[in-house]
């Protein structure tokens, strides 16, 4: 039993070293306070205020998008990323702001799509909608 | 008495000598085959955890998002775990492959799997649509049921390796 505990402690310690190194490497690249920094979130009211300069992106599965979505929104999810990204980029221009939503506050797909748009497509002005589709429906459209 | 005992010994010796000489060899071969099979299983499970760990360590922010989706822990802790757990998986996987710290690795992997399965079931019960993130993008297409089947299969293999190691 003692040997088991010693081995476990040793393995935990060994894992801690590279993990600490990686955390140090990422210290300026990620917020420790929120999964999405406040500067990358947008409220429904603010996003609506952007009018035509906003591109709305629905990051939910296609079946949910087909059923109902924010008027004018484009489907872009990770299931068909390679196929849908060029379609989205065709509507994008540098002065536009991108607003991404998924089903609710708790879903993670809008964060992930936002992250990939920034990282892979090098887009700026990419925002995640607070409360997602659930909040949009709550406002009575 | 002594002669009786002596006869008994002689009979035992005679009986064992009467066994075909190949049976011990066969038993030895079976034991060797069984040992190889257990070794292969340990290497497969170890490699699986190394692979899963590498995929997650490659993109810890994404993995932190996956943990965040479970809505159990605060973000800072999720991020900390996203840096730590992939390395723990890799090191435990390597320990199984090279057979160093073997028992400790099995115990840690068993605990990790139990916590993960429990968290997955709790999240599903709360109606949270989760991507487990176990194998990065590779596992995104798996349904919840298949995730559970996979997890229980790995858990069973870890338990089997633990029991085998105890009996050796």
Describe the overall structure.
The complex is a heterodimer of chains A (141) and B (168). Chain A has helices spanning 2-25, 44-49, 62-67, 81-91, 109-119, 132-138, and strands spanning 41-42, 54-58, 74-75, 97-101, 126-129. By secondary structure, chain A is of the alpha/beta class. Chain A starts with a helix and ends with a helix. Chain B is mainly α. The model of chain B is unreliable at 1-16 (pLDDT under 50).
Shape of chain B: elongated
**Which percent band covers the strand fraction of chain B?**
under 5%
Oligomeric state: heterodimer
- Give the number of helices of chain B: 6
Strand fraction of chain A: 5-15%
Largest interface between protein chains, with number of residues from each side: A-B, 34 and 36 residues
Distance between termini of chain A? 62 Å
Q: Cα-atom Rg of chain B, whole angstroms?
A: 24 Å
- The termini of chain B sit apart by 39 Å
The number of helical runs of chain A is: 6
Biggest pleated sheet of chain A: 5 strands, parallel
Low-confidence stretches of chain A: none
Helical fraction of chain B: over 70%
Q: Report the structural category of chain B.
A: mainly alpha
Instruction: Catalogue the unreliable spans of chain B.
Output: 1-16
Judging from the principal axes of the Cα atoms, what is the shape of chain A? Answer: elongated
What's the layout of helices and strands?
The complex is a heterodimer of chains A (141) and B (168).
Chain A: H1 2-25, E1 41-42, H2 44-49, E2 54-58, H3 62-67, E3 74-75, H4 81-91, E4 97-101, H5 109-119, E5 126-129, H6 132-138
Chain B: H1 2-18, H2 22-58, H3 60-68, H4 75-98, H5 102-125, H6 144-167
Helix pairs in contact in B: 2-4, 2-6, 3-4, 4-5, 5-6
Write a brief caption for the model.
Helices cover 46% and strands 13% of the residues of chain A. Chain A has helices spanning 2-25, 44-49, 62-67, 81-91, 109-119, 132-138; strands spanning 41-42, 54-58, 74-75, 97-101, 126-129. By secondary structure, chain B is mainly α.
């Amino acid at each position: 039993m003692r040997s088991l505990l010693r081995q476990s402690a040793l393995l935990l310690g060994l894992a801690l070293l590279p993990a600490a190194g990686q955390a140090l490497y990422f210290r300026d690249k990620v917020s420790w306070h929120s999964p999405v920094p406040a500067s990358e979130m947008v409220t429904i009211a603010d996003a609506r205020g952007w009018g035509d300069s906003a591109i709305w992106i629905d990051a939910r599965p296609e079946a949910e998008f087909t059923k109902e979505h924010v008027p004018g929104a484009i489907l872009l999810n990770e299931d068909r990323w390679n196929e849908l990204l060029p379609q989205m980029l065709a509507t994008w221009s540098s002065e536009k702001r991108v607003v991404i939503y998924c089903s609710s506050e708790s879903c993670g797909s809008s964060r992930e799509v936002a992250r990939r748009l920034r990282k892979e497509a090098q887009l700026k002005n990419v925002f995640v909608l607070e409360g997602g589709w659930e909040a949009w429906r709550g406002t009575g459209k | 008495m002594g002669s009786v005992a002596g006869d008994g010994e002689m009979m035992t010796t005679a009986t064992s000598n009467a066994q075909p000489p190949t049976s011990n060899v066969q038993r030895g071969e079976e034991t060797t085959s069984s040992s190889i099979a257990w070794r292969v299983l340990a290497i497969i499970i170890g490699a699986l955890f190394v692979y899963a760990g590498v995929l997650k360590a490659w993109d810890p922010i994404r993995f932190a998002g996956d943990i965040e989706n479970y809505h159990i822990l605060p973000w800072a802790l999720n991020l900390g775990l996203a840096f730590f757990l992939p390395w723990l998986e890799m090191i435990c996987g390597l320990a199984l492959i090279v057979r160093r710290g073997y028992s400790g690795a099995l115990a840690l992997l068993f605990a990790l799997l139990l916590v993960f399965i429990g968290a997955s079931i709790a999240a599903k019960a709360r109606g949270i649509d989760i991507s487990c993130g176990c194998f990065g993008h590779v596992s995104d297409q798996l349904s919840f049921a298949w995730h559970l089947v996979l997890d229980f299969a790995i858990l069973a293999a870890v338990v089997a390796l633990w029991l085998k190691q105890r009996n050796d």
